[in-house]
Design goal:
Layout (H helix, E strand, L loop, with lengths): L1 E4 L9 E5 L3 E4 L3 E5 L9 E2 L12 E8 L4 E6 L5 E3 L2 E3 L6 E2 L4 E5 L2 E6 L45 E5 L14 E5 L27 H30 L6 E2 H12 L5 H8 L15 H7 L6 E8 L2 E8 H4 L1
Length: about 325
Amino acid sequence: MGTATAGGDVEAGFAKLQGEDFEYYMQTYSIVLGRNSKKSTVDVDLSSLGGGMNISRHHARIFYDFARRRFALEVLGKNGCLVEGVLHLPGNPPVKLDSQDLLQIGDKEFYFLLPVRSILGGPLGPRHYPNHSAAGPVVPHYNYHLAPASGSLVKKPRRDYYDEEFDDEDDVGGGGGKKIRRDGYDGYGYSGGKPSLPAPMDKKSEGRSRVDRDADNLQLQQLEEKDVVSSVATVLSDLCGPGEWMPMEKLHAELLEQYSSVWHHSRVRRYLTSEDWPGPESKGKPWYGLLMLLRKYPEHFVINTRSKGRVTLEFVSLVSLLS
């Protein structure tokens, strides 16, 4: 889910895409860019924004890499994507994204921008995390003063500031944080307004506490789980009638067909393979991780098991289909 606008309305998001004539706020940790078709829709339809004819239906995915604590771009379309003038093609490793990186897909250019504050932060003070069993997207709150998105894209002179939040574990060298480029721009690291000098950093203010970072990791993981749960609920509601059950094997096959090329490979491994579950209970059950996830949400799913000799079969249905 996200918000695409043509003006300068105040919005909130984990990140922002800023084009000459559009702006899009990421309100989930993963979005797909491409073009809409009769078979599927994408989060950002670049074709309708003047991206030209060389845009694939699923051309690229921008996502938050939990392991490396940074945003990245995964190229899916055969014509590739330009990031800071460098062409990246499908099959290459995901490209690390820094704030104010200039992206080009087809004929469309736009900036990738990060909020100056935490992607999951908010006003300084006590942090309260909501119960994620409630429905609805989780959106961070910021106070923004955003300039209109109209006008040509002009690459601005860049200054560096340090922020430990998006610490790049692969970077070599001293220092506790990764260097992130931005211009003085209220809310997001983008052009406009007077540059605001970075405040001096000391040991007390360097980065955020490990407790907060762990809490953010947990919140992002819960967002991923909710996204998978939503996909499962969609498949079950489409294929099952009232009172019907679906074998986990069939559910796994449906998810593999519909989402294996859309989900990030780490999510596919976690929920559609048994690679992360090496125990004997997962042997021959590539859906074992998915089964463990669904059991965490008894308010939405009912799991039924049947045994045939030494073989245990699992079936799943929606609570709404059985009530």
